[in-house]
Amino acid sequence: MAYRHSVEKGNGFLKDMAYLQIIGIILVVVGHSFHEYPDGCGGKSLLLYGMMYSFRMPLFMFVSGFLMIYTTLQRGNPPSWRKFTLGKVKRLMVPFVVLSLVTFVPRSLLSFYADDPVELSLSSLADSLLYQDSLVIPYFWFLQSSFTLLVGLYLVFILFGSDGKNDKVLYVSLILFFLVLGVLGPGLSGLFSLDNTVKFGLYFVIGASYCRFRKYVDSIIPWTRLCFLLGSMLVWALLYFLLDDTLLMPLCSLSGIIMCVSLSKVMVSRGIRFLDHLVGANYIIFLLSWYFNVLTQQILHGFVELPWFVYTAMSLVSGIYVPWLFYRFMRTHPDNCITNLSKLLLGQSFKVHSHN
């Protein structure tokens, strides 16, 4: 009851953000659960996969940008850049390094089951910590890109936007900056996921901008009207088919984000609470779901032949709910030695409402 009470009594707008985080992580796990789809490329040719992919990671970046502004610059006495950076090292880089090191040897030994074998060598280990295409857990590029954007843009906001007088100019300038980089960005180095940092930085800045000007934006957009939600879904679907593989694809991604924001606000306004039990667990699901996706698909398939949708169902359920059970254990046993060790190694990643 205490957990549900904390969700219900928390800031209403952050509840929207909490739902956005859960929607995003569910889409991530769903996208990683089609590996055994019989198309030869891990389900990536599925229309469902492509449509989810059009906005799921932009949505993550949007929420990260929003929360950076909300939890720091919009509160009194924002932390110094040094303190902020140390916090992000602890929250993002420590889990990245720890889980990469823990996973490196097992994945190397089980390369027979993997699409991309990992060589058991010191050079391969170094590459797995530095280069996007060599990561032990492929989607951990998000941790690298998030860290770069958070630390870099927080410094920019402190230096140029701390007085609040030139916010509009600053935010518009950053949006234009990432729009230009998005055009010039393809082919950039994969070192510390720089290419994805450039690719998704636009959505981070838009999320930050929405947080800064949300009172004005919310006053003119009827987020909670069902006609707006259905209309945004239709616009997103149409833009996906019209703009796919074009330079205008970010418009589709933004429409997908708008659709999700509207959905989350509709859920709050109508008291739809079926996601409440997952609030706060999004980051631990992100960190640990890969293990269960791989175990229930690639490794299991090496021992038993099942219909592809059975692997998908097991991957989806275990990828969400085994980490969730671990999270609930942390919440109900806060002084347990396992909890304390996990918080240390995973960057104290068991906080409600935040994954950035």
Structure keywords:
356 residues; 70% helix
What does this structure look like?
The chain has 356 residues and is mostly helical. It is built from 15 helices and no strands. It has helices at residues 2-9, 12-31, 47-53, 56-73, 81-109, 122-130, 141-160, 167-184, 194-212, 214-220, 226-243, 249-269, 282-301, 308-332, 337-345. The longest helix is centred in the first third of the chain and has 29 residues, at 81-109.
Compact overview of the structure:
The chain is an all-alpha fold and 356 residues long. It is built from 15 helices and no strands.
DSSP E strands, number: 0
| Distance N to C terminus | 26 Å
Helix content bin: 55-70%
- The value of Rg in angstroms is 20 Å
What's the order of the H and E elements? HHHHHHHHHHHHHHH
Q: What profile does the largest beta sheet have?
A: none
Number of helices: 15
What coarse outline follows from CA principal-axis ratios?
globular
Class derived from helix and strand content? mainly alpha
Low-confidence stretches: 1-13, 352-356
Average pLDDT number: 89
**Percent of residues in beta strands?**
under 5%
Oligomerization status of the protein chains: single chain
Topology:
Elements: H1 2-9, H2 12-31, H3 47-53, H4 56-73, H5 81-109, H6 122-130, H7 141-160, H8 167-184, H9 194-212, H10 214-220, H11 226-243, H12 249-269, H13 282-301, H14 308-332, H15 337-345
